[in-house]
Design brief:
homodimer, 211 residues, mainly alpha, Tetracycline Repressor, domain 2, 8 helices, 0% strand, DNA-binding, DNA binding (chains A, B), transcription regulation (chains A, B), transcription (chains A, B)
Chain lengths: 211, 211
Amino acid sequence: MIETGAEPESRAERKLRTRRAILDATLELSTDSSLTALSLRQVAKQVGIVPTAFYRHFDSIESLGLALVEESFDSLRDLFRDVRRNAQADKDIVDGSIDALVDHVHRRRDHFGFIARERVAGPRSVREAIRHEIELCERELATDLALMSGTDTWTAKDLHVLSSLFVTVLVATAEQILSTTRPEQEAQIVATVRTQLRMLLIGVYQWRSEA
Amino acid sequence: MIETGAEPESRAERKLRTRRAILDATLELSTDSSLTALSLRQVAKQVGIVPTAFYRHFDSIESLGLALVEESFDSLRDLFRDVRRNAQADKDIVDGSIDALVDHVHRRRDHFGFIARERVAGPRSVREAIRHEIELCERELATDLALMSGTDTWTAKDLHVLSSLFVTVLVATAEQILSTTRPEQEAQIVATVRTQLRMLLIGVYQWRSEA
DNA sequence: CCTTTCAGTGAACATCTGTACACCGACAAC
DNA sequence: GTTGTCGGTGTACAGATGTTCACTGAAAGG
């Protein structure tokens, strides 16, 4: 027998592993369509467990979805962290942000795709959870923007408005990248959003908040 | 017997009527979830026909979806027409466009919601059809933008880039309006996008295309 | 060692799914 | 007035669905 490094594995570890398998299977099975079109039995079959075993981990597809929302937004927060890091380095803020975006979307295609889909087509509670998380992201970005040069005279409201616009463009760009597999088309998308952000930044540098 | 104005109605008219009923039922049933989670039998029940009768009009939910894409984009083109009309009138271009957007989203909540959902979560062919239609909208808007003052020196590419950004913001705004029913929250959304477009327009007026 | 815990099993259920088929009856065409 | 067309009906079937229940067997805890 070849030692495959199969650890003894405690019961808790096993449970965690099938939980992971369920999450992964769900992400894979919902790459087209949506959570609402996904059956508990499909997931179970993909994982290799019997349907009823599903209930040991989640009590419905919906609560499974909520778990995936949390997980997916961890990925998105990673992206934010990298954008911030690029901004603090010498990198151009537009190029640095886009690089980080493209990189993270490639790395966690499943998570970003999940958010894009369930944001509009998922179960109500999932949609609301995503909406809430995005709201948090916008707030977080707004506080970052406040530290940018040129925004010292801005009102808090305007900062949030701008932040929300950035997030909108970010989400839309992620969706577009996800919808293609051809590299030259992706390059096109990236070039487009690059120009868009530059156009926008010109406006931002000239903006003066009204009292 | 009360004369209810029931016309004799030819066979073709009858057929068209149930076809309409199927389309309407589908829009209503898919307001949450998505086409992919919708069964032929649900639609048939909602319409009040037997499941097999469905096949007299469409040969699958998917082809039904394609019909709804066409119909929904008629609504969207109506919106574009109104935006153009407002722009030609004395109205402020930002306020005029937003007014038209809000108005049309309210009037055809079903169509805009359908596009928003199926764009990312529908069957592949439906997603592609929507992507294609949006592409056409962007091109159409780009030619309009070319007539705007200040864009005479712009390259065709930059015009399309800007057009695409406008459409992105438009779609995102429509999605937000759709996701709320509270009027004060909608007012908030409208105020936000208003500011966003004004920020963007400042950039646009200063933009000079590179050779 | 003995007992408890508990992730996973397997059979059973009522219900829903898409689709095939033969059929009907009112309108249309001749 | 006869015939054909064609929306819509009703039955039927094989398969998928969520959920129930009693179960097993190995790890955990005493």
